């Protein structure tokens, strides 16, 4: 029995040691798997964070990220922040000489420098002047005047927007907040390199309708979003208003009357006038709404800035004052967008 016990004990120990080795090996594999999974999660989280950061930066109009290759120029609006020294934080614009005026160190030449280079120049001036030891400066460009594109006209936020790398027309329009409710059907792009040959492209509320219009935009370009043409309906109608001709740029007298809610019960249908401004001045075109409504005459097309005046039957209209009265009413009319 003793021999058996002496023999069994070592075997048991060997068996236990073998089991421990297997457990350790399995634990090691599990640890590696967990570590790899954690690494993948960290990588995925980091990638997602980086993508989110890039997406956030790309939607910040006019703001420059650290390390941007865009070079500063006269007219750029710059925010300078000195870490842990809020008294030195300032917002200033690059003057015509290419310099910015900062507290303590006065004028610093930044024209032609990148954001990183300008930061280092300011840090050196602060350090060498003995004002701040080992300063850390962050510089942000709020508005680009030199390396940006001017977006004017009917957009949500007309301004100058930085052209970072390859930018398209739709990118810049999106940075400006998109088209306004009064935007027309065309956009004019004037390149700084060729100012005598502006390019006009078609546009609509849905930018995908005109993919060919998404042309390349360069620094120094001017983008003008044209306002839609307007016609006015005033006088004895239900809703005197100005209407944007966004529906293909075409509108007739009957369509305009319908948009104005129709005429009132006191309207003088035979005395309507179409007031039109031309090169030779203001002219009046008689329009018989009664015949139009009875389909006894053809509809009359309207042009941009036309004023359709519908008088009241109980009021005596002096022919010489008709245009003047219509013009006064049109100046106070509200605008209504007509969408296709």
Largest sheet: 6 strands, mixed
CATH architecture of the largest domain: Roll
- The CATH class of the largest domain is Alpha Beta
Order of helices and strands: HEEEEHEEEEHEEEEEEHEEHEHE
The whole-number mean of residue pLDDT values reads 76
Low-confidence sequence ranges: 1-68, 316-320
> Which value, in Å, is the CA radius of gyration?
36 Å
Strand proportion: 25-35%
Strand order of the largest sheet: 16-15-17-13-14-18
What's the total helix number? 6
The 3D shape can be described as elongated
Can you put this structure into words, describing what you see?
This protein is an alpha+beta fold. It has three domains: 77-143, wza like fold (2-Layer Sandwich), CATH 3.30.1950.10; 148-227, Roll (Outer membrane lipoprotein wza fold like), CATH 3.10.560; 230-337, Roll (Outer membrane lipoprotein wza fold like). The chain has six helices and 18 strands. Strand 6 (148-153) and strand 7 form a beta hairpin. The termini are far apart.
Please tag this protein with its features.
6 helices, alpha+beta, 3 domains, 340 residues, wza like fold, Outer membrane lipoprotein wza fold like, 18 strands
Concise synopsis of the structure shown:
The protein is α+β, with helices and mostly antiparallel strands. It contains six helices and 18 strands. It folds into three domains: 67 residues, 2-Layer Sandwich (wza like fold), CATH 3.30.1950; 80 residues, Outer membrane lipoprotein wza domain like (Outer membrane lipoprotein wza fold like), CATH 3.10.560.10; 108 residues, Outer membrane lipoprotein wza domain like (Outer membrane lipoprotein wza fold like, Roll).
């Amino acid at each position: 029995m003793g021999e058996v016990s002496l023999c069994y004990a070592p075997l048991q120990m060997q068996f236990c040691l073998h089991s421990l080795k297997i457990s350790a090996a399995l634990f090691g594999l599990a640890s590696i798997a967990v570590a790899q999974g954690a690494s993948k999660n960290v990588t995925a989280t980091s990638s997602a964070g980086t993508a989110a950061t890039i997406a956030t930066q790309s939607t910040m109009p006019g703001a420059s990220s650290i390390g941007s290759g865009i070079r500063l120029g006269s007219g750029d609006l710059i925010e300078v922040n000195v870490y842990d020294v809020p008294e030195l934080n300032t917002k200033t614009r690059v003057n015509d000489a290419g310099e910015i005026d900062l507290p303590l160190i006065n004028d610093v030449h930044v024209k032609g420098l990148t954001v990183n280079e300008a930061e280092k120049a300011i840090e050196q001036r602060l350090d060498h002047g003995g004002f701040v030891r080992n300063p850390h400066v962050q510089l942000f460009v709020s508005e680009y005047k030199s390396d940006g594109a001017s977006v004017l006209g009917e957009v949500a936020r007309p301004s100058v927007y930085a052209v970072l790398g390859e930018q398209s027309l739709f990118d810049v329009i999106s940075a400006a907040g998109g088209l306004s409710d009064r935007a027309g059907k065309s956009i004019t792009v004037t390149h700084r390199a060729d100012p005598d040959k502006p390019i006009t492209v078609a546009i609509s509320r849905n930018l995908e309708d005109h993919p060919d219009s998404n042309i390349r935009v360069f620094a120094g370009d001017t983008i003008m979003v044209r306002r839609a043409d307007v016609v006015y309906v005033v006088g004895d109608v239900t809703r005197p208003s100005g209407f944007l001709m966004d529906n293909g740029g075409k509108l007739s007298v009957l369509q305009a009357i319908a948009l104005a809610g129709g005429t009132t019960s006191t309207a003088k249908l035979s005395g309507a006038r179409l007031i039109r401004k031309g090169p030779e001045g203001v002219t009046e075109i008689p329009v018989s709404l009664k015949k139009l409504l009875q389909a006894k005459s053809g509809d009359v097309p309207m042009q941009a800035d036309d004023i359709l005046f519908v008088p009241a039957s109980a009021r005596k209209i002096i022919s010489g004052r008709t245009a003047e009265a219509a013009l006064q009413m049109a100046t106070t009319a509200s605008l209504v967008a007509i969408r296709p």
